[in-house]
Amino acid sequence: MLFRSLLLLSAVPALAQWDDSLLKPFVMDHRAAASSPADVSFLLDAPAGKHGFILVQNGHLVRGDGKRIRFWGVHLTDWSRGSVMLPPKQDAPMWAAILARFGVNCVRLHFLDLASPRGIIDSSRNDSRAFDPQQLNRLDFLVAELKKRGIYVDLNLNVGRSYKAGDGITDFDKIRWGKGLVLFDPRLIELQKEYARQILTHFNPYTKSEYRNEPAVAIVEILNENGLYLGFRAPTPYYDEELTRIYHDWLRRRNLPILPRLQGGEVASAPRERVVTEMAFYMEMESNFYQDMAAFLRNDLGVKAPITGTADHSHSSSSYPMLTSLSKLDIVDGHVYWQHPGSKVMNTPMVDDPLNSTVVQLSRTAFAGKPYTVSETNHPFPNDYAAEGIPIIAAYGGFQDWDAIFLYTFEPKRDPAWKPYVGDPFDISLDPVRMTQMATGALTFLRGDVSSARRTIERTYSKDQVLDSRRLRASGQPYFTPGFPPALPLIHGSRIKSLDGPPTAKFDVPDSTPIVSDTNELGWRKGLVTIDSDRTQSLVGFIKVNATRNLSADIKTPFAALTLTSLDSNPIQRSGRLLLSAASRAANTGMTWNDARDRVTNQGGPPTLIEPVTGSITLRNLQRAKAVSATALDGAGRPIGDPIQARKSRGGWTLPLGTPITTWYVIAVQR
Predict the structure, then answer these.
(1) Nearest-angstrom CA–CA distance, 670 and 210
(2) What pLDDT shows up at residue 14?
(3) What whole-number distance in Å separates Cα of residue 515 and Cα of residue 383?
(4) Largest separation between any pair of C-alpha atoms in the chain
(5) Which residues, listed in sequence order, are joined to residue 581 by a DSSP beta bridge?
(6) What local confidence, expressed as pLDDT, does residue 530 receive?
(7) Where are the beta strands (DSSP E) in 187-327?
(8) At a CB cut-off of 8 Å and minimum separation 6, what does 596 contact?
(9) What is the C-alpha to C-alpha distance for residues 546 and 564, in angstroms, rounded to an integer?
(10) Which of 132, 155, 440, 664 has the most other CB atoms within 10 Å of its CB?
(11) Contact, 390 vs 445, CB < 8 A?
(12) Cα(44)–Cα(447) distance, rounded to whole angstroms?
């Protein structure tokens, strides 16, 4: 059926032709969402940590009782106006309940090391070495409320800390977050350990445990998006000279000639021996840092949660030198965005570019025998095609058997009367497309609705390949492995077996369209992704007329994402309750694009708008169905109007889409 449904697609347009007059108001209203028929909190096993600490077994994350666990998560941040990272205590239960209803079972506590009133660092002092009592209390209460509902936390240590005169840091006012510097400067490392001790030994009065002894802490991260690299230039001469001194000491111990460090453009033309020598130095520096920090956390502080170092976060170059140190820790992690706001190309559909998709990019980092987490990903706003992101990452994340996926980011709004619109490119909290898709994504990923790959390709790299990979051309993205077919992760599982073994073998995959997974549940051809499993089925892209085994669609909207998933444990054909996400594009009122429609000229304001998906779907092969109806939901997850009765025909049960205005429906099947 998968092959047939994909072949139904005729020639695909490169881009949709949008009619902005079709945009209609549809807003998220979290504070009104006391209950919802789309509540998927049953996926969570509350309280978090009740089975003991998260462990690593057989290359995956498991609960304390040995049962496999996956995490479907968000961050809590506050970059847009009116948002708050740590909500006031009166709001914490509400936000925890909201996240649970959408199936979020882990929150990445990110940027906690910002100064108050944003983070927990006391901003009234002349240093960054103490916590703000009120902010710390908010954190403690929030963690307790999350834990009650079965939501774990991923605790980040060094993310956005800035420094003051009292910290004893040279050039404290010029280094901002100290990217790169925190891996080698002794004083910065000393302060990192001090911070880690303070937060991890802090006793939470609401959970009655220190964070190092808290089973609801699923992961501890040492750094966020940090590293050293060829051509690294420190922000001030002091740190540049310090790193050069360390490098020269390293060369002397190896009886190697003393050379200056390479700067910027020198890397491309430098002799190989000079390049690989300096690369080996950086690799050893990073490895020593992470091993020292991990030993401090595990042995000195007694941290019980799995530890990860930092993410593979820069896909414009090879990650393998950095991964040699990161892969020695408990978890390997990756970050990728489709068309980050800083990208040169913007507002094009990922379904048109499978070989550069977030799935392929992220798949390069996973290691055999190690849990793999994706702690940041998103289709940032505005993007007319953002509806494709969540259903694709949830499905292929399951196929690749990843352990966690976190959307960056969710920004709680401080003011109950806050006007609903998307005020930050990454914030999904008030996005009526990405937010409602979180529920279907949770069902797909947490339940394991998409089967893991039947075959996993494990590749090895020699030491020379690792060292040389940093100078490979950008055209080698994202794998930077000559001869490795980028379509492979869409067909089989993909893992690194070794970075110190034989050279990478040549792998052949069929050059065919569509690109079909070896489970036959996933297919990708330019313009359309089809997901066809027992409990979750999706059509994502330029749908027109297409079908899976239980979902047939005749869609007028040029680009859309339809996901039909069972709300009980049964496959779709036998399920009594189904959740349907029908999403196209979201915008703000008054938002305008340039003539090329690749940059916005006005971000707009409230209320948020959607283009409703119009046309019809037909539910096919429903066993013993006597009647089928759909209830449209509003932005609080409440029913809108009367149920829509499906029309019975020889092909199945047909439901019209588009009225009322919505992005999601609950479908009831009577038997």
Answers:
(1) 50
(2) 60
(3) 25
(4) 83
(5) 563, 664
(6) 98
(7) 203-204, 209-210, 217-223, 307-312
(8) none
(9) 14
(10) 440
(11) no
(12) 10
Q: How many CB atoms lie within 10 A of CB 166?
A: 13
Q: Which amino acid is at 288?
A: N
Residue 500 exposed, middle or buried by CB count within 10 Å (0-12, 13-18, 19+):
exposed
Q: How much is the pLDDT for 512?
A: 84
Q: Please state, in angstroms and rounded to a whole number, the distance separating the CA atoms of residues 72 and 404.
A: 6
Which residue type is seen at 499? L
Distance from C-alpha of 558 to C-alpha of 380, rounded to nearest angstrom: 20
| Contact (Cβ atoms closer than 8 angstroms) between residue 195 and residue 113 | yes
Spatial CB neighbours of 34, under 8 Å, sequence gap ≥ 6: none
Amino acid letter, residue 497: K
> Which tokens go with 37?
């028929």
- Could you tell me the sign of the dihedral formed by the alpha carbons of 543, 544, 546, 550, in that order? positive
Whether residue 564 contacts residue 538, with contact meaning beta carbons closer than 8 Å, is answered with yes
Question: In this structure, what token pair is assigned to residue 316?
Answer: 């414009």
**How far is it, in rounded angstroms, from Cα 410 to Cα 427?**
5
Structure confidence by residue, pLDDT tens digits, 633-669 = 999 999 999 999 999 989 999 999 999 999 999 999 9
pLDDT of residue 664: 98
Strands 71-76 and 60-62 turn out to be unpaired
The yes-or-no verdict on residue 6 having pLDDT over 90 is no
> Could you tell me the two tokens for 430?
């008030």
